[in-house]
Amino acid sequence: MNKKLNTVLFVLGATLFNVIVTIVSFIIMLIIIGRFLSAFLSESALSWAFSLLILAAIAISIFVYRYVLKKLLNKVDVEKYFDPLFVKKPK
After folding, report:
1. Residue 65 vs residues 2, 14, 36, 72, 84: alpha-carbon distances, Å
2. What is the DSSP string of 22-65?
3. CA nearest neighbour of 56 among 26, 79, 87
4. How confident is the model at residue 1 (pLDDT cuts 50, 70, 90)?
5. pLDDT at res. 65
6. Local structure of 90: helix, strand or coil
């Protein structure tokens, strides 16, 4: 495999990982809210909680993604296996 293919596969895999982490964290928080807080909250509060859960799931996925990416980049020589995504064009 060449560097360009490695780069494309890495970006696709990282995107899939980020989406999966977002969905899993959303489902876990939704279960927690549904089990423990739904009896105490009104319908309008639950709709606000649902909106906040979506934002919280996105924030959690960003933090998990950055942590995993940082650990991975410490182990892998990026210049050896991946092509740069953005290259400065000569003038």
Report:
1. 25, 8, 28, 10, 19
2. HHHHHHHHHHHIIIIITTTS-HHHHHHHHHHHHHHHHHHHHHHH
3. 26
4. confident
5. 93
6. coil
Tokens in use for 30? 């939704």
Residue 57 CA to its chain's centroid (Å): 9
Backbone angles phi, psi at 13, to 5 degrees: -65, -40
Of how many residues is the chain composed? Answer: 91
- Per-residue pLDDT reduced to its tens digit, 41-89: 788 888 888 899 999 999 999 999 999 999 988 888 877 778 777 777 7
- Structure-token match 């020589």, residue found: 77
- How is residue 68 written in tokens? 């995993």
> What's this model's pTM, rounded to 2 decimal places?
0.79
For residue 14, give the nearest of 67, 59, 57, 80 by alpha carbon: 67
